[in-house]
Amino acid sequence: MKLKIQLQHPNAKAPTYGTDGAACFDLYAAEINGMSYIGDIVYAGHPMHINTGVAFEVPDGYMLQIRSRSGLAFKHYITAFHGTIDSDFRGTVQVMLTCTDACEDTPPLKINIGDRVAQACLVPTPRVGFEVVEQLRLTERGAGGFGSSGV
Questions:
Q1: Fewest Cβ atoms nearer than 10 Å: which of 7, 26, 31, 135?
Q2: How does pLDDT run across 42-92, given as a tens digit for each residue?
C-alpha cells in the first residue's frame, strides 16, 4: 500500500521505518514550539508542540494513529499525545510531547529539528451502525472496570 504525503515545511522529512519489521513509521520534527531553526528541552509539566511538516492522504476506511516512541518513553519519560488523524484531514500532522516525570538521574532531553519525535501507523476503521437494544449480552466481567479483572 502506498500512502500519499505532502511535505509542507522546508524542514519536513518523509516518514521512515526504523527496521524492516517495524509496525509503525517514525515522524520527524520540522518545527518545535513555533521555531524552525532551534530545538528545545522537554521539561516536566511543559508540553512541547512539534510540527512534523507532513500532511497525509489517509485512505477512506483508515486512520493514522500517532503513538509514542518507546525509547523516548522508557529512557526519558517523554510521551507523545496519542492522536488520531482522520481520512478527511489534509493539514500538517502535529505532535505534542510531554515529560511525565522529572527524575534526578535522568537529565532533561533536548529535541532538535530533524529528530524522530513520534511514530504512526495506519489502522482500519470500519464504519458501524448502531442498534438500540433493551439489554446487552451479559458477561462474567459485567460493568466492572478500572482494575476489576485483577492485577
A1: 135
A2: 888 889 999 999 999 999 999 999 999 999 988 888 999 999 999 999 999
Residue with cell 532551534: 38
Provide φ and ψ at 66, rounded to 5°. -90, 135
State the cell numbers at 145. Answer: 472496570
Q: How far from each other are the two terminal CA atoms of the chain, in whole angstroms?
A: 40
Q: Which three cell numbers stand for residue 61?
A: 476506511
- The beta strand positions in the chain, using DSSP E, are 4-7, 25-28, 31-32, 40-42, 48-57, 62-67, 78-80, 84-85, 92-99, 109-111, 116-124
Q: Cell for 95? A: 505532535
Cα torsion angle, 26, 69, 78, 49, sign:
positive
Q: Which three cell numbers stand for residue 82?
A: 496519542
* Whole-prediction pTM: 0.88
Residue 75 is classified by DSSP as H
Q: Please, are residues 68 and 24 in contact by the beta-carbon 8 Å criterion?
A: no
113: which 3 cell numbers?
529539528
3-state SS assignment for residue 53: strand
SS3 76: helix
Q: Nearest to residue 80, comparing CAs of 89, 71, 90, 92?
A: 71
